[in-house]
Fold this sequence. Notes:
The protein is an alpha/beta fold. Helices cover 38% and strands 18% of the residues. The chain has eight helices and eight strands, in the order H-E-H-E-H-E-E-H-E-H-E-H-E-H-E-H.
Amino acid sequence: MTELEREMLKSRIDAVRAQVEQAAVKAGRNPAEITLVAATKMNDAERVRFAIECGIRVCGENRVQELQEKYEQNAYRDTDLHFIGTLQTNKVKFLIGKVSLIQSVSSIRLGQAIAKEAAKQGIRQDILLEVNIGREAAKSGILLEDLPDTLEILAQNPALHIRGLMAIPPIADQTTKNLRYFDEMHQVFVDILTKKYDNVNMDYLSMGMTNDFEAAIACGSNMVRIGTAIFGARHYPAV
């Protein structure tokens, strides 16, 4: 990284942290309650390490192979590592023992695959259940009507610890900023809290990204996953 790139990255991190704090205060909440997850997809180990030097305390990776490569390069030293992307059951084994939280558990089958691998390694794996709140066919996630059964089944496995919910609503409208979906997710979160399932702790409601994290915080999110606002626009290779 050049010195200019370092300055720009530090400036963006400072700005995002300030925005998160302001959004929390505006919502009458304690900023310390909000966990900022830096979505590090397509950023190399050097950039990730520098982001950590600048105060990032949680990194979130979307791709298993990329996480493995950067993990071997010691990219995530002195920070917490989450997996936040779509996960296939055959790749679960590459995450257990490396990530503290798998945010994107989108089915009973995936949860059971995680539990099986965690049990092999003698680990109790923290997970979030991913809810398809917008009912989008192109997205993974548990439909609201299936959430109670999913909770009941996965909570019975001692190798799992359900720590909350995660959602990726439809692309935000500039006016509403997904308020409808965020409000609905928060209500679901609160409802589960009141039911007191065994082996379920509603510690985290992970929702909100670069375009809508302030609205998500206003609606009760306590974990936001931010990539572009921190690292700049991603440049995908031409197909």
